[in-house]
Amino acid sequence: MNGPAPLSAAECAAIVGAIDHALLDPRLGAAELEAGCRMARACGTASVCIVPWAVGLAAEILAGSPVRPSTTIGFPHGSNATAVKLAESARALADGAVELDVVVNQSWVRDGAWGAVRDEILALVDATHAGGGRLKVIFENCHLDDAAKRTLCGLCTDAGADWVKTSTGFAAGGATEADVALLRAACPPRVGVKASGGIRDLDTLLRLRAAGADRFGASRTVEIVAEARRRAGLPPLPPA
Questions:
Q1: Where are the domains of the chain?
Q2: Residues 138-168: tens digit of each pLDDT
Q3: 194 in active site
Q4: Which CATH superfamily is domain 9-231 in?
């Protein structure tokens, strides 16, 4: 039986460079957060998405590297008032974050209160861009029907969001190929698609990439990077 297809060194770098390494488990202490940032820097991931209080730590460790400090806003339920999300965003940007992953107000989405959803997304996009950052909008797709997902894609596109994102990774379901394909088809090319939730191995990431995702939230980055390098015939990375 044939094994998985090999990767080129360039493909390996592109895959690793599209991972947002997630350090969002509330049980992680400062030493574990620091180690995770150093590992991501050594691997060359797209970003480290770290718990909000530790953004400054991530920014310090990642300084001088292409790995971006990022964090979450209104996480994980999106239920904070818009003013609170804006305050969170301002603090995160001031602490050094350059990408923000914000959860939509799921109650408003479920109620079809699209005007309120639109206004909040637009306010967050404007504030993030004014602060020099980029914004990903998390839908939590396992709670939504396809019509709501498409509506959110339209609102995010009109507001100027930089990515739409499938999931927080803290709900009952995560990224699926069908959802990634739906989001990709519903957004123009300038809006990226981030898959998150349940990406535990390289093959899952590659399937979601084929479906249209260009960013991937993962906490098992070490294992994914090791497998990508193995398939590319590259030596293992030394310990960070």
A1: 9-231
A2: 999 999 999 999 999 999 999 999 999 999 9
A3: yes
A4: Aldolase class I (3.20.20.70)
